[in-house]
């Protein structure tokens, strides 16, 4: 069987990105020049004889590099929350894992029927149009003004595939399209369920409102505007205007607001900002409440937050492959992926470590 050097190179690029490293760093580990390593990645030099060594440095099985072509998701296709603070190594890791998640999606499709993508495209020009879009979506979902029970389930009902990646605090989440399928990646290390829900809704806002050429995202002011719009969408969906206005404790203390978090499943900071957006509190009270949040250290983490919600699609998939005797280790071996990638993308996979038995086999 012939092996295409460009295919190998494309997989080397993705594996290097997942490590968060530049070409020069990998070249140094291989004790070759950056120029030679660059030719490997471009498929312009014979790499077969040193493939085991390359695979070791890239922390992947050799079979992963010979599976066929893979496309690195373009950086301009990714819509981040808080991209301005993202480290370059984290950005590369996100880009590489996004590419791997597209392959994992194909694997999921072999075992689970995922809802067809159904996110509408709703271009907006103002905050009022965002509120209208949220009312339209909630009406179609027969949600009225009730609190959102499960943000991950909502995304998956729209045909969005949700995955997780390991990252530091500079990363919250990212969304992108591959063909007609939408994807969202969240930070596995973000254990604040309220923040995770807001990030997920923020990314759904990007997927619904911000499509088309993404070259404008290179301009900082434009990126900030799109992020503000996605934040407004998340706030409006989590805390519908009419029901939120009726329930919000306008004259209560910060602790009264804190007590109401479990109803909306939103952070105290998000609730205060939503109240200000809806003119339920004036500028002075908004400032004082935010000073109180900062003084208590709640910017870094509020007390007594729930864990993030889980993916039902992932559970169905892992249950299905488990019935065929595939635990996480065997699954990673069968697709020539490092097991760390599966544990990263599928947090639930850590519950599927033991051997499975199925009497019907």
Describe the structure.
Helix content is 53%, strand content 6%. The protein has 18 helices and four strands. A four-stranded mixed beta sheet has the order 1-3-4-2. Strand 3 and strand 4 form a beta hairpin. Helix 7 packs across helix 10 (220-238). The longest helix has 24 residues, at 88-111.
A few lines on this structure:
The chain contains 18 helices and 4 strands. The protein has 361 residues and is mainly α.
**N-to-C series of helices and strands:** HHHHHEHHHEEEHHHHHHHHHH
Outline type? elongated
Largest sheet: 4 strands, mixed
Unreliable runs, pLDDT <50, ≥5 residues?
A: 356-361
C-alpha Rg, in Å? 22 Å
Sheet with most strands: strand arrangement? 1-3-4-2
Q: N- to C-terminal separation? A: 33 Å
How would you state the average pLDDT, rounded? 92
- DSSP helix fraction: 40-55%
Q: How many β-strand stretches? A: 4
Class from secondary-structure proportions: mainly alpha
What's the total helix number? 18
Strand content: 5-15%
Fill in the keyword field for this structure.
disordered C terminus; mainly alpha; 361 residues; elongated; 18 helices; single chain
Give the helices and strands, then pairings.
Elements: H1 5-19, H2 23-30, H3 34-41, H4 51-58, H5 62-65, E1 79-80, H6 88-111, H7 127-140, H8 151-157, E2 161-165, E3 173-178, E4 181-187, H9 193-209, H10 220-238, H11 241-247, H12 254-259, H13 261-264, H14 268-277, H15 283-295, H16 312-323, H17 328-335, H18 339-345
Parallel strand pairs: 2-4
Antiparallel strand pairs: 1-3, 3-4
